[in-house]
Automatic annotation (TrEMBL):
Protein name: Protein FAM3D
Location in the cell: Secreted
A single GO molecular function term of this UniProt record: carbohydrate binding
Membrane-spanning intervals of the chain: 6-23
């Protein structure tokens, strides 16, 4: 009886030990199966730590370049927005935009905002814009965004002044066109920072207006 009892006791211990080993291996297998790969965890961490680029650009600008984003107005409903070096200078939220042409002047060396103004190009005084454009110096950057109607009051002199700033499309800017532009005085060639959409009933996105335009990029600091 003692021998048989001892055998039953040893058999019980063996069964318990075997069961425990099986459970441990099963748990370890499942933990390995469902554990996230290390690279996924690090990728999630890195994405959450990414710094926001200036003005919401898709990539950061190199040294000695300024980040900017210009968004034209949408029809006569939503005004334009202009951002320079992560500073929103004009926008509907700031309530400092107007119908016509919205213009920001920036120091091309320091990036400091010098002034911002809007000019009514539907029923305003075009001579005010002419005077403003003539006073732009070579060390300034010029940011322009249209809203509603930028072209009714345009004349040959204003078109030429914008062309001198590097614009390609100012010469054809008309009633309710969409236009965004960044330029400067005495460029060796036309500015690469410009977008233009003609008011065309067949292609307009809005009822009576073309689609809004977005222009973003990195402009070199003036030396």
């Amino acid at each position: 009886m003692r021998l048989s009892g001892l055998l039953r006791y040893l058999a019980l211990i063996f069964a318990v030990a075997t069961t425990w080993l099986f459970i441990r291996e099963y748990i370890n297998f499942n933990m390995k199966t469902f554990r996230l790969p290390r690279w996924m965890g690090s990728a999630h961490k890195n994405s959450s730590q990414l710094e926001k680029n200036k003005c919401g650009l898709s990539k950061s600008c190199p040294d000695n370049f300024f980040a900017f984003k210009i968004v034209s107005g949408a029809a006569n409903v939503v005004g334009p927005t202009m951002c320079f070096e992560d500073q929103t200078i004009m926008s509907p939220v700031k309530n400092n935009v107007g119908r016509g042409l919205n213009i920001v002047l920036v120091d091309g060396t320091t990036g400091a905002v010098l002034t911002q103004k809007s000019f009514d190009m539907y029923s305003g005084d075009a001579s005010l814009l002419t005077k403003f454009l003539k006073e732009i110096s070579e060390d300034m950057l010029v940011l322009v965004a249209s809203y509603d109607d930028p072209g009714t009051k345009m004349n040959d002199e204003i078109r030429k002044l914008f062309s001198n700033l590097g614009s390609t499309h100012a010469k054809q800017l008309g009633f309710r066109d969409s236009w965004v532009f960044l330029g400067a005085q005495n460029l060796k060639s036309k500015s690469p920072f410009e977008q233009f959409l003609k008011n065309n009933p067949e292609t307009n996105k809005y009822d009576g207006w073309p689609e809004l335009l977005e222009l973003e990029g990195c402009v070199p600091r003036k030396v």
